[in-house]
Amino acid sequence: QVQLVESGGGLVQAGGSLRLSCAASGRTFSSYTMGWFRQAPGKDREFVGRVSWRGRSTLYADSVKGRFTVSRDNAKNTVYLQMNSLKPDDTAVYYCAAAYGDSQYEYWGQGTQVTVSS
Q: DSSP characters for the chain?
């Protein structure tokens, strides 16, 4: 069982930066691939990026590639999403999620709101 709690959301102007954190409970955090997703009003939830269990491999959606960075600190049971050069289109509720190995994401946080003003 893994419980996830996101933090760090807020209001930022276009071009600004935010760093989201996702704190995980459970001793097996380091065994999970950690992903970030987002959902804008009226839209489906979409994949943003993910980091492998050791932190050596990352993958990003084309829409955020080069602007967002996913990282993790297994000693702190925390995964991060550094967001730079933010755009109004990045406005959404951001969720972190955990997947064991290559399985589907099975644990989800409650989400944190990110609003980017133009």
A: ---EEEE--EEEETT--EEEEEEE-STTGGGEEEEEEEE-TTS--EEEEEE-TTS--EEE-TTTTTTEEEEEETTTTEEEEEE-S--GGG-EEEEEEEEETTS-EEEE---EEEEEE-
Structure-block tokens of residue 56: 């050596």
Q: What is the pLDDT of residues 13-46, one digit of tens each?
A: 999 999 999 999 976 888 899 999 999 999 999 9
Q: Phi and psi dihedrals of 13, rounded to 5?
A: -80, 155
Mean pLDDT of all residues in 50-60: 94
pLDDT at site 29: 84
Amino acid found at 57 = S
The residue assigned the tokens 């001793």 is 27
Please name the amino acid found at residue 13: Q
Q: Which of 115, 116, 111 lies closest to 38, judged by CA?
A: 111
